[in-house]
């Protein structure tokens, strides 16, 4: 009886401390503002520069070989002129230079003129391509034009303040979608465009009401661009691709926070999330991959202390189970579990110190970048061909 009483008293004390921590957090926490910068962009395949450099070298080497005989002929004529020079060396030297230039510019056969022009045009194009490949494109309205955007792979992020990039301070917009696109561009060896459609503090229901119309507009624009491009290009593969290759749904945290106040259960969250995924598929097509990542911040955010952290882990885990359930039962839906401590490459305390911004809840640039690398790797694996379920019957 005494042990039972101690357990009950101890449990009550822990519950009291947890509630006090939660109440203090609720009353005192102020989220940082959304970061400055664009909410969309294009990440180019960085290795393209070296590839084009190699192509340029091959082109130049080939053309040089083609004109080697002509150069040797001109050189021989030049040597003959030099051998015949007298004391009036300087005057004849000038004559030699002008003569060689005239011989090159006035090739006897008409076809040589065309070959020379082709050579110069090819070199100019190669130089232009090499210079253009080094230019970083980070805006949908870049100098590369809509054609480059239409041909790029496309990823969208829909979610809360993590999608908005709260905690970023570099003025370049949200770090997470930008870094995921950057990592994927290198992994897929293609250009990857990205867009962030987020609402700070938004839950699944709010996102469905306010963000889906923006998603519909985005998809309509992309389809129009691709149709217009097809009339100028023979690349019909564009129309067979989904307008969005992948949508990351970064949700759950605000849902279980509001569940405490509204009484909405984890089952309600699963139903709401299922409806949102279904609507995204209707807009973007069944071939669009939907990624449901777990949120790792609960485990390391410095603001969360025990025993509150343990309670938040339990709640976050319960909501993650609903994401996993949908991923196991829906076509082209992928759940990404939290990265382990080993992935972060440091201790738990160091993750808390190094990966979070001043509010001690949201990641900083380093934290978003590390998480983005993890999500990009997971999405790349999710695109492996496999047979999957048609649709869920009973959510």
TrEMBL record:
Fetch the InterPro entries from UniProt.
Answer: Ester_Hydrolysis_Enzymes, SGNH_hydro, SGNH_hydro_sf
Question: Would you say which domain of life the source belongs to?
Answer: Eukaryota
Question: Taxonomic lineage per UniProt?
Answer: Eukaryota, Rhodophyta, Stylonematophyceae, Stylonematales, Stylonemataceae
Q: Provide the SGNH hydrolase-type esterase domain boundaries.
A: 157-369
Single GO MF descriptor: phosphatidylcholine lysophospholipase activity
SUPFAM superfamilies, per the entry:
SGNH hydrolase
Name of the protein: SGNH hydrolase-type esterase domain-containing protein
Q: Which residues form the signal peptide?
A: none
């Amino acid at each position: 009886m005494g042990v039972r009483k101690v357990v009950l008293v101890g449990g009550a004390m822990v519950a009291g401390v947890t509630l006090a921590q939660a109440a203090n957090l609720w009353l005192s926490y102020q989220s940082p503002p959304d970061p400055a910068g664009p909410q969309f962009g294009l990440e180019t395949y960085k290795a393209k520069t070296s590839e084009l450099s190699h192509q340029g070298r091959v082109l130049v080497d080939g053309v040089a070989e083609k004109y080697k005989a002509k150069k040797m002929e001109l050189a021989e004529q030049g040597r003959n002129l030099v051998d015949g020079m007298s004391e009036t060396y300087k005057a004849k030297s000038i004559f030699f230079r002008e003569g060689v230039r005239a011989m090159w510019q006035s090739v006897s056969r008409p076809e040589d003129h065309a070959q020379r022009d082709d050579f110069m045009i090819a070199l100019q194009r190669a130089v232009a391509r090499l210079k253009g490949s080094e230019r970083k494109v980070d805006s949908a309205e870049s100098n590369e034009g809509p054609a480059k955007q239409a041909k790029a792979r496309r990823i969208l992020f829909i979610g809360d303040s993590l999608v908005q990039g709260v905690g970023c301070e570099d003025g370049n917009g949200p770090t997470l979608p930008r870094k995921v696109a950057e990592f994927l561009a290198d992994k897929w060896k293609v250009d990857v465009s990205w867009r962030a459609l987020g609402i700070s503090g938004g839950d699944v229901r709010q996102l469905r009401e306010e963000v889906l119309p923006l998603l519909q507009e985005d998809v309509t624009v992309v389809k129009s661009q691709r149709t217009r491009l097809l009339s100028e290009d023979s690349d019909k593969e564009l129309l067979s691709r989904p307008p969005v290759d992948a949508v990351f749904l970064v949700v759950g945290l605000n849902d279980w926070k509001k569940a405490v106040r509204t009484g909405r259960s984890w089952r309600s969250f699963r139903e709401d999330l299922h409806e949102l995924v279904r609507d995204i598929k209707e807009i973007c097509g069944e071939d669009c991959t939907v990624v449901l990542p777990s949120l790792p911040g609960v485990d390391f955010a410095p603001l969360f202390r025990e025993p509150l952290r343990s309670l938040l882990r339990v709640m976050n885990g319960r909501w993650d189970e609903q994401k996993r359930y949908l991923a196991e039962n829906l076509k082209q839906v992928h759940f990404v579990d939290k990265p382990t401590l080993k992935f972060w490459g440091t201790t738990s305390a160091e993750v808390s110190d190094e990966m979070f911004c001043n509010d001690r809840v949201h990641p900083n640039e380093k934290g978003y970048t590390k998480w983005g690398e993890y999500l990009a790797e997971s999405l790349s694996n999710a695109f492996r061909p496999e047979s999957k379920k048609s649709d869920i019957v009973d959510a």
